[in-house]
Amino acid sequence: MALKQSAIPFAGTAEQEELLMAVIEKHKGEAGGLMPVLHEAQEIYGYLPIEVQNKIASELNIPLEKVYGVVSFYSQFSINPKGKYKVSVCLGTACYVKGAGNLYEKLKQKLGVEDGGITDDGKFSLEACRCIGACGLAPVLTVNDEVYGRLTEKDLDTILAKYKD
Amino acid sequence: MVNIKINNIACQAPEGSTILEAARMAGIKIPTLCYLKEINAIGACRICVVEVKGARSLVASCVHPISEGMEIFTNSPTVLESRKMTLQLLLSTHDRKCLSCVRSGKCELQTLCHELGVDDEIAYEGENPEFEIDTSSIHMYRDNNKCINCRRCVAACEKTQGIGVIGANERGFATFIGSPFDMGLAETACVSCGQCIAVCPTGALAENDNTAEVWEALSDPEKVVIVQTAPAVRASLGEAFGYDIGTNVEGKMVAALRRLGFDKVFDTNFGADLTIMEEANEFLERFQGGGTLPMITSCSPGWVRFCEAYFPNLIPNLSSCKSPQQMFGAVTKTYYAEKMGIDPENIVTVSVMPCTAKKFELCRDGQCAVPDIQDVDISITTRELARMIDKAGLMFKELPNEGYDNPLGNYTGAGAIFGATGGVMEAALRTAVEKLTGETLKKLDFEEVRGTKGIKTASYTIDGTTIKIAVASGLANARKLLEKVSSGEEKYHFIEIMACEGGCVNGGGQIIQPADVRNNIDLRAERAKVLYNIDSASKIRKSHENPDIIELYNNYLGKPGSHRAHEILHTCYCESHLYK
Ligand code: SF4
Ligand code: SF4
Ligand code: SF4
Ligand code: FES
To answer: Engineered SS bond to B247: which of A136, B243, B536, B554, CB 3.0-4.6 Å?
Structure first.
C-alpha cells in the first residue's frame, strides 16, 4: 500500500510546535475540540502532515486514524504542502463542461501526483478549485496568481515549461 | 413495560428497547447489517427499516426506541421494497464474486440478498471504485472491493480493542475503510487480533489462508508433520459442522486431523501445562526474589504486541515465557526430535489456533529453540481447519471420537482452561500456591477469576502473605487496567491479559457467527463452558502433576527455570514504534 503522503520532508520549527501545543492545550478536553485544533494547526504549518497529525493524536489521546479520518473528510484540510508553483484547475460547472476534468486528469499524469499532491521536488502542487469567476475563459487554470484560459490539452506542456525553475 | 403492536399483534417490551429488540422478543427477526450490540448502533445501512404508523418516513429499527402505543410494520411492501433497494445499491459497487469468495455461504450480505429475493444484482450499474487489496500484514488481508462500509470492524478495533488503526476515510461516495494516510495495516500498530474479521459481515476481511502450505507438507513423504490444537479450538470447530455453540468436539477433531494425514496429533494443552510450570516458577522467583512486579502473562500474542506498542513501560513486567504454541513447537524440535531420532529439519509443526495473531507470533524474533528452525512452522485458524476438513470430504459428524497421541497429547484440566479469560491465572495459581506452601490445595476452583467480566481482581492470602491479582480480557479493558497500574493507582503482583474479550474462546480465528447470533448469544460464555467442563471432569487438574510433563523435566529440562528451559522456552520483547 502506497503511503498517501508527499516525499517532501517535514520541516516544522520549534516555534511552530510551541504554537501547536498552545492550541492543543486550549482545546483539550473540549467536546469537538479536534476541528478547531486542526484548523489552527493548518494555519500554523500550512498543511497537516503525518508528523503534525501524530502529535495532535497523541496529545489528545485519540488514535491517529481518528484524526486522519476527519482530515480526509473535509476538503479544506490538506496533507501536502503547497508547491513553489501552485496549479489550480477550476472544476466549476462552466469549466467542467468544457473539459476541465480531462485537463485535470492529464495534469495529474504529467506531474505524477494525486489530487492535492505535490511533485517530489516540491516544485508543483496540484489541486482542483471551485469557480474562480473567469467563466468566459473556460476552461481555466491558475499557476500561483497567473490565469490561463481557453485551454486545450496541447497548452499544458507549454504552461508547465514556463515554470522550469 | 411498553405496549406496542407489531404487524397488528399486540405485545409488550421493556422501556428503552429499540424496535429491533422488541420485535426479536416477539419472535420477529428484522434483518441488520451495520448493527452490533453495544458497539455499533449507528443507523447507517438502513437495511433494518420498518414502518411506524404516523412517522413521515421509514425508521431504522436498530436505533429507534419504542414508545407507548406504537404500531410497527416490519414486513409491509414499502419496507420490503426499501430493503431490496438498499441491497441493490450495495451490490452496485460490490465485487460480486461469490463463487470464489472466502465467506460464500456464511456471508450476511449474500444471505440477505437471497432472503429478500434480490434477483437483479445489477439494477444500478454505476461508477465502480477499485481498491487495492491490503496484503501487507502477516495475519490477514483487507479487500475493500467487498466492503459495505458497515463499520463493524472499526467499532471492534476501536471500542472493543481500544486500538483504532482502521476507520472511515474520505467522504460521501468515496468513503472507504482504511488506515491513516492509506498505510497498509502492517505499518500501523494493528496487533493482529483478528476481531475485525470476526465481526465483518462479508468477505472483505479474512485471515491469510495458510492451508496450502499444510497440504504441501502433508503430501511430502520426507516430512514428519505434527499438529497441535489450542484448547479453545475444540470449543468452536463444531459450529462449522452444525453443532450447537458450546459443543466439545475434541474427539472428532482428533479423528479428522489423523485422517487429514498428520503423523502425530498432539495438544497445545500440553504446551499450556509446560507454560504453567515455567510461568509459576518465574512468578515465584520474582515474588520472592524482588523481581519486577506485577508479572504479566505473555501467552496472547495480540496482547504482547499491544504491550510493545502501547505500554512499552510494562515490557519488563511481561513474563519471559514463550506462549504455549511456541513452547510446544520448541519441544517438538528439541526433546521430541531427539527422543524419536528425527532431524528437526524434517519436522513440520503445524498449530491450529483460535487466533490470527499466532500467525504473526511464530515468525517473531526469539522463537527458535534450534537455531534457524522455527519452533512452529505454520499456524492455521479454526476456520482454516474447518475448510481443510470440508475439502478432504470428511463427514465430520460421522467421524469416531479419537484420543490424542502421546507423549505430547497428554494434558491436565489446568491446561484446558487456558483458552478462557482467567484460565491462565487459575492454572498458574494452582501450581504456584502448592509450590509456595508445599501443601496440597483443598479447593482447586478459583471462582473469582472465572466468568466473562472484562476486568476481574482478587487477592489471596497464603501462609500470611497476600498475593493481589488481576485479569483482563479485551484490549480496551486491558488498557483501563494498565493505565491504573502504570500510574501506580492500583498495585498487583500478577496480571493475566488476553487480547480478545472472554479469552481465546472468542478469538479472531474462531468460527464466525453472524451478527444476529453475536447480538443474542454470549459466545464467550458458551464456549468457555466447554473448557471448564473438561477441567472439572479431568482426573489430573494441576499442570505439575501431568506425568509427561514430569518426565520431560526429569529426562530433559531439569527444573523449571533451568538453563536449558531458558534456552528453549523463554523469549524477549522490544518496544515497537509503529503508527498508533
Ligand atoms: S462478500 Fe458476500 S456477497 Fe460479496 S462476493 Fe463474498 S460472499 Fe458474495
Ligand atoms: S486485527 Fe485487531 S488491531 Fe488489527 S485492525 Fe483488526 S481489530 Fe484492529
Ligand atoms: S470491512 Fe467488513 S466490517 Fe468493515 S466496514 Fe467493510 S464490510 Fe463492514
Ligand atoms: S441501520 Fe439498522 S442495522 Fe444498519
So the answer is: B243
Whether the pLDDT of residue B127 is over 80: the answer is no
pLDDT tens digits for B388-402?
999 999 999 999 999
Residue B315 contacts residue B574 (beta carbons within 8 Å): yes
A26 and A47 part of one domain = yes
* Coarse DSSP helix, strand, coil percentages of chain A, rounded to the nearest 5 percent: 45, 10, 40
The CA distance from B199 to B510, in Å, is: 11
Q: How many CB atoms lie within 10 A of CB B231?
A: 29
d(CA B184, CA B165): 10
**A96 shares its domain with A156:** yes
Q: State whether residue B157 is helix, strand or coil.
A: helix
- Is A66 found in the same domain as A125? no
- Residues B476-524 pLDDT 10s: 999 999 999 999 999 999 999 999 999 999 999 999 999 999 999 999 9
Domain of A153? Answer: 85-161
- Single-letter amino acid, residue A151: L
Q: Which fold has domain B2-75?
A: Ubiquitin-like (UB roll) (3.10.20)
Q: Which ligand sits closest to the CA of B20?
A: 4
- CA proximity to A94, closest of A131, A149, A126, A128: A131
- Interchain CB contact of B167 with A (< 8 Å): yes
- pLDDT per residue as tens digits for the range A52-62: 999 999 999 99
Per-residue pLDDT, averaged over A97-104, amounts to 92
- Overall CATH class of domain B212-577: alpha beta
Residues of A with CB under 8 A from a CB of B: 1-5, 50, 53-54, 57-58, 62-69, 72-74, 79
Phi, psi at B292, each rounded to 5°: -65, 125
Nearest CA among B509, B492, B428, B508 for reference residue B455? B492
Give Cβ neighbours of residue B565 (< 8 Å, ≥ 6 apart): B278, B557, B558, B559
What confidence category does residue B181 fall into, taking pLDDT thresholds of 50, 70 and 90? very high
For residues A104 and A43, state if they share a domain.
no
What pLDDT does A51 receive? 94
Q: What single DSSP character describes residue B159? A: I
The pLDDT value given to residue B512: 98
> What pLDDT sits at residue A145?
87
Q: Could you tell me the residue ranges of all domains in chain B?
A: 2-75, 98-207, 212-577
Q: How many structural domains is chain A composed of?
A: 2
Average pLDDT rounded to a whole number, residues B70-78: 97
Can you give the CATH number for the domain in which A120 is found?
Answer: 3.40.30.10
- Rounded to the nearest angstrom, the minimum Cα separation between A71 and chain B is 8
Task: Decide if A4 is inside a domain.
Answer: no
Query: What cell was used for B101?
Result: 469468495
Least trusted range by pLDDT, from A5-9, B186-190, B338-342: A5-9
Report the residue among B87, B146, B153, B177 best suited for mutation to probe ligand 1: largest number of ligand atoms under 8 A from its CB. B146
Q: Please judge whether B579 and A72 are an interchain contact, meaning their C-beta atoms are less than 8 angstroms apart.
A: no
CATH number for region B98-207: 3.30.70.20
Same domain (yes/no): A89, A114: yes
Residue B252, pLDDT above cutoff 90: yes
CB-based contact B171 A73, cutoff 8 Å: yes
Mean pLDDT over each residue of chain B, to the nearest integer: 96
A69 and A117 assigned to the same domain:
no
A135, part of any domain: yes
What is the B516 CA–ligand 4 centroid distance (Å)? 12
- Which residues lie across from B313 on neighbouring strands? none
Nearest to B457 by CA among B498, B494, B501: B494
In a domain? residue A5: no
